[in-house]
Amino acid sequence: MPHLAGAVEVCLQIIRSSLNMTSTDAENIHTSVLADEIVEFVKAAEPGVIVDATMGMGGHSERLLQALPNSRVIGIDQDPEAIEYASKRLSGFGERMTIVRGNFADISEIAADGADAVIADLGVSSLQFDSEERGFSFRFDAPLDMRMDPDSDSPTAADLLKELREEEIANVIYQYGEERASRKIARWIVEKRDAGTPIETTGELASLVERAVRRGKKDTIHPATRTFQALRIAVNDELRVLKTFLKDAIDVLKTGGVLAVISFHSLEDRIVKQAFLKRSGRCFCPPRVPQCVCGAEKIVEILTRKPTIPGEDEMRTNPRSRSAKLRAVRRI
Known about the structure:
alpha/beta
């Protein structure tokens, strides 16, 4: 049994009785992306212990437990609502499923005894994205929160817009959202704040961004999409946490173990790709540096020279899968 070291193990039996949602209900709310491909990569590792580092509503965990009857899964998530859904959905697997409330960056503690496979789906779960209260989506007018763990003491998106300087807001929106109108958006946000009417709801932010961003004829996404992505990344410190996770996830893998990661935007995919290349021995030091100082070491074999992407059928039935990219490595 892995050491939990500060993470709280969630006993499934405590909350099963309070839930009435069936497995089918959960699947209707959230369809797991690239589930067949995840199973195939993990199956090759002949796993005993699998860590689902971003369990969400438990879709990938369920598929793995069904496909690999001799394996058990440790699911990690920081969202109590997602844990409730997953607990009900996975209750039939008994002791083969252990759920831990925590951040996947703590995998070195949660899976201190090692793992035969680790998977991570970096996308925002449908449970969060479709929530009318959590502030992840501009489809609902709600408090501008965006915290993956709603019980944490970390600042909300609204807090950041009240506290950061104009230049800092612009940098967040540009760097994490790749939004070209970031300076204009930041200026308008600060102007409203200085006038005594700070941005506090998703509706207010979406309206401001929609007016600030010039939408081209070929644009297929809402003008506020990039800004909302940027704030969510900043609120949850997602990119720093991802780098920590990737290093530690590889370290907890046993020889022959597989790490498979699904990303949904270019910033994440770039970090995953570079982390995998570095741990496969690729040096990123400047050519004139006489000795490698970037930490490259050959301890994994890359299984996906190009990322695996969903097929046409999956993209048609699950439009949210369109930007998904799956990369995998094997510990050597």
